[in-house]
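From the thread on structure requests for the teaching lab: each student submitted one protein with a one-line request. Submission from student K.M.:

"Model HTH-type transcriptional regulator BetI from Sinobacterium norvegicum, tokens only."
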Amino acid sequence: MPRTKAKPTKVKDSQKKSVDGVSWQAQKSAMTRDRILDAALHSFINLGYTNVTTAKVASEAGVSRGAMLHHFPAKTALIQAAIEYLHSKLLADYTEKVDRIPADLTGTARRRAGVDAYWEHLSGDLFTAYHELSVASRTDPELLDIIQESVAKFESHVAETNSSLFAEWEGHGERYTLAMDLTKFLMEGMVMGQIANDRKARINRLLDYLMDRLEEIFDEDDDSAISRHVNG
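Reply posted by the TA:
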């Protein structure tokens, strides 16, 4: 009599092995949550903040309405989690780009590498999502409250990184503050500006010009034009 082949036993999620002490079910839940948050960021970029709904995010993420409600029962909870997720990714992205700067670079070459790393960071989709939320927060007090704390944490990290990239300049009081503000606001304006023709060449020219102005801030004496804008 021929032997019947045993049917494979289906392993339930709850029976799958854990990794680093975390059950498979918990891992699966975390992956679903991250997929929803990634979909939220893509929706901010592609649809604009005011057009984003939990239903649209669920569709973008490929999850059921029930799964969405399980993780984020209200849009406010989704927005808050998405902003925290966005800023964690912004931190990781900026840190990764700065860490690629060769350790043996010094002086002007290291400072220019830092500016280039910041430009690369600003040019990505993550900053586009951040900018969309920042603009929307100007007329949305609830969103503004959510975003301000995360922004403060990110800017603190950038300031700490800059103190290493621009170590020779850090102890120059208001000149240092002026240099960092010039870099931040000029470059953020550049990335959001609509430059249609010869974009690459024009961006490189602006970055070259920025570097010249930064060097001038610290090279000029107390009788210079710069001294009218700073106290030290």
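TA comment: The radius of gyration is 24 Å. The chain has a mean pLDDT of 84.
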